[in-house]
């Protein structure tokens, strides 16, 4: 059977038994602060198991895309080395929500494996929890498995728990014996033997029948659930008779493509490990980037960067020094696109992100190798054969070198890596990472979520209602139908309030920030500084109040006595947010129209003072593109179009062309926001009634935040008014500065002119009195080269020369931009007595430079073209003057 047929037959088998097919959720979890990535099929049904959510069906079946690279299920360092660990995998699963239980789950699992897929019964084993007599009896009763193949294990192997508290229960696993020769470990092979690759788990059937309370006690659940999971890659290998998951049709087309691109065969450990790593990692990268993650230096993005760098490093083992991993995206789409159609329209974006990362890392990798070689050279000179753990860690942490690469490179040179120090530094990093992960997920929302789960399980509250279309800005709370409940994120303070029924405060979601406002009561006011949604509850955050304070006692007493509060939101702030949210929809649509439909939302922030929109696009926006986007948005704003908000089935909305976003969680009924023919999106946020209410829209920033992801920031309404006033003031300040600068410039120019005249005067006086001044009939003739900006300045120097020379003829020359300027002066006595004419002199002198001139008898100017003939022309002055005197 082909992998796609196995996937389909699993779904059809359970659909025939009354199960509803539920599409895979994204690998980027929605609103779950405990997960970096979706790592199991049950993630999207977690709220049902917790009792905080429901579904319109009691039985479900699906195949879920999963990623396991961090935390409890960190398999990364094993991926590629063995034949069955993966960063990305598919989980086949079936669920019962308070419907069927152990009997049907066991019976159907056995039927599918042995009748539908015809696995040999004598190779199968069933495990049950040591205290689960019911499960063992059912295996004996409803299947024909050999009784000695039913094995009991303790909590470690056969008891499932969601966390320290909450839903839990025994599980029953189905294992298969792959036969002798399939495990090369030095141990006695058997079911649940760590590291054994002969006996492998195929399917885990979890029976959720208890709730573990805060005391650690198990309480029976009123409704019992079934949660099963089976790795597709593993069952495909078994059904296709392959010893390795990488030999199946899920991976072989990829490995063949890698072989084709690299010119290497899938032979030998070095090539096989490298090809397996790359084949696995490109699947993970394709799905993670498709669903909204991008490589970066924190959170999920950092995990992606590590995975991509690991693949790039292994590409060097295949002698690939240029980017090529991105070329495999097309093959992933070819293999997986039918089951997961969302990857096809995003493939060009995914390729661009991966290619950019490859290009960047190749430079980093070369630098890392250089550091390694430099360190080795130092050690060799000292005769030391231990490679420092600190350097190995630096190579791992800064340059993405897996420790096995450093080990291998060191061994090839006869060195041993100090792994003890390396591991100590790694543990320090893991601790930092654990702390950072807590911070990533909304500053402690995970702990708040635990408290909320307790509230929900107790039945104190069920769900907080919020209507985004209700223009209601005040609400009376703490009556019988809508009680106020005080909460705390630690043991010493009160800092949260929940209303048991409904609220008018919008909880942060979809990029829109939460509302703020106040609770008014006879004793005063309580400020609400933020509003967040945790599971189905809306939490109102207030400034921390010490529990033992008079104020805390007063508020607690007032709440318990049923005292009423008036909840008021900050209306001006809400309206500013609405303007920016509606403008965000217009911006998204305008970007798609100007840049292309490859533009996809990658994140957003809708705040009262600005909006921020992250989107997929490979290059910087030009000024013209930004202006086109602004023009489109403002055109729609001033067309005064109504924003139509409707509730409709998700399928209908998508068929009508509404934009949905990967990573967002949608129910069967969704809210749509339509702005004429310009914009149509799924959205649960608060919006204006008409576009004209936005005012004007202005983009104030555009830049890059990650490979292939751009960010635009824009403003509207009062924020824009404030921005324009600030710009006006800035222009005024600049204008004043410019006036001062111009005035200072003029003063400096005057000073400079005076200095230049003084210098010129000194220089001319020196020349007039030097040996270069020739005497003819008791008057002087002198030619001087000077530096002058233009003819006017040269004429000023000419006046100085005429005054300094007493009685005589002078010629000044300066070169500007490869052209010659001349000024000739003749003192008045020579004009009268000798009939000398400056015009005639300058014309005759400059003739050789290709120039000509004009002016008055006592001062004339001329230009010259041939700079090379300047000295010759100046030397000719004396001859010209003598000649004119003789005439």
From TrEMBL:
A Pfam family hit: tRNA_SAD
Domain (Alanyl-transfer RNA synthetases family profile) ranges: 1-726
Coiled-coil stretches: 717-765
Enzymatic reactions: tRNA(Ala) + L-alanine + ATP = L-alanyl-tRNA(Ala) + AMP + diphosphate
Subcellular location: Cytoplasm
Summary of the function given for this chain in its UniProt record: Catalyzes the attachment of alanine to tRNA(Ala) in a two-step reaction: alanine is first activated by ATP to form Ala-AMP and then transferred to the acceptor end of tRNA(Ala). Also edits incorrectly charged Ser-tRNA(Ala) and Gly-tRNA(Ala) via its editing domain.
Protein name: Alanine--tRNA ligase
